[in-house]
Structures are given as C-alpha cells and as structure tokens.
Amino acid sequence: MSTFPTARDVRTTPEGLLWEPSRRWVRGLKGDVTVVDSRHPVLVWEPGVPVPLYAFPHHEVREDLLRPAKNPPTGTHTGSHVFYDLEIDGRSVENAAWTFPAEDLAGHIAFEWFRRVGRGLDHWYEEEEEIFIHPRDPHKRVDALPSSRHVRVGIDGTVVADTHRPVLLFETGLPTRYYIPREDVRLDLFEPTDHSTGCPYKGTATYWSWRGGSGGPGVPPNIVWSYPEPLPAVGGIKDLLAFYNEAVDITVDGETLERPVTPFTETLSGRPSTGPSASSGAVNNPDTTAR
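-> structure tokens emitted (291 positions)
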C-alpha cells in the first residue's frame, strides 16, 4: 500500500534541520538550461528561517555543471557544508549549490534562488506552474475570501478607502489583509512607484506611495500594493488595493484594529520586529516579498 505525507512525515536532524519528502515535480533552470529535474524533492527548513527550500537527489541534478566552490562562504546555511559553483556556457555562479551535513540528507543538493538572494537558479517550476522567491510551504495557507464587511482605511486622519465589498486575504502567520476595489480608494492621494516585489503565494505586486493630506512625510513609502496578475489560487485579489496594517488605521465594521507588529514593521518604521515569522521570505529579505 502506498503512503502519503502527513504532519508526522516532518523529521528532525541532530543539526536542527526539519525536512520532509515532497510529491511535486520540481525543475530549476539557469537561463534556458535545466539544472534540476526532480520527481523526488525534499523540503528543508533551517533553524530560525520561516520558509523552506528544496534539496534534490544527486541523480536528478546536472552535477556535470557543478564545480567545488572557489570561495565557499561561512555561516550561510546550517552546519558545515560543501559548496559548489555553477558553470554554464563559460559563466560561473559562485556558491549556487551546497550539500547539508545531516546524515538524513546525504546524497541531496540544495540550490540558491536568484530572486531571493541575488544568485542561483533563475526559474523554478512545480509541475507546470512557475514559482518565485522560495518553495510554498505545505503547512501554510493563503485564502482570499470576498466579504461584505465595512472596511475603512485612514492615514493621518484622512479617510483614503471606504468599502463594503473587500476581499479578505488570510495568510498563515500574518495579519488579515484587506483588499479593496480601486473605485473605493482615494488613489488621487497616492502616486505609483517603480517598486515591485514577488510572492510565491500571490505573484508580483506593484506599489503606490502617499502624497496627500497632512503629515505625509511621516508615512512610509510604498504603503499600498496590488497584484495585477495574481496566481490562480488568489485570483479574487486581482487589481484590488491593500494597505500595510502596520502603518495605517483600519476600521472593520466599526471596530478600529490595533496595528500589528510583524516582520514588516522594521522595514516600515525602523523599529525592531518582535512579531510572528512571516510565511514568506520577508524575515531574511523584506524587500522581495509583498504582504
């Protein structure tokens, strides 16, 4: 009889790594070259890092493209590792791959993701869907639910959004985000920016900054975002606008919400974050993931 992953399939190594097998077909490319083509990937969580990464059996990796690292880093990943440079068409990508010291993961190779750390493989696919920043965590959920709640958003005493038709986005480990139709937002008080971020659960976001009302200079930039082409699982938020709860005043059905402390608080206000870990890569790279 075949078995399927459950919560009990998450295993711990003496080094503090958590890992579990995945049933997804995963491919990783550098340019047009397929470097990883795996039907037996393993999800790995490193201590203190809220998001997983993939490791792959050696025989599902183009090892002929890997060379022992010329300048291996220290303290980059858990434990003592063997690092590899990736060489393709005469170009070298330093420390693009590594092995974990854990006996459980012997025979597996992990890769950096370019859009997360600035080096590594450019494109990743689970089945036929491209994924970004890091693998999606199977133990986390992201649900976009249409609602009739009355949501009002204020900035420095100015009402900038007022709607009875929001879409509420519930994401494990983060506060509820309220996505609001553009017609119900005072977009004349904001200006678009060239800032852009990627999220493995939602897609690529575009941003607006505050330019109207009193006290504008005290409002963080890029305080509003939208997903013009969200991933299918959260298609209900397409073209809607969301505000950082951490930096604006949100009232829901007459109740003013407390501003949460999250991993984004430090980025928005400069204060240290003591909130829960994000379900994305925001803790390690707050500029690449929108919430």
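The two ends are 41 Å apart (CA to CA).
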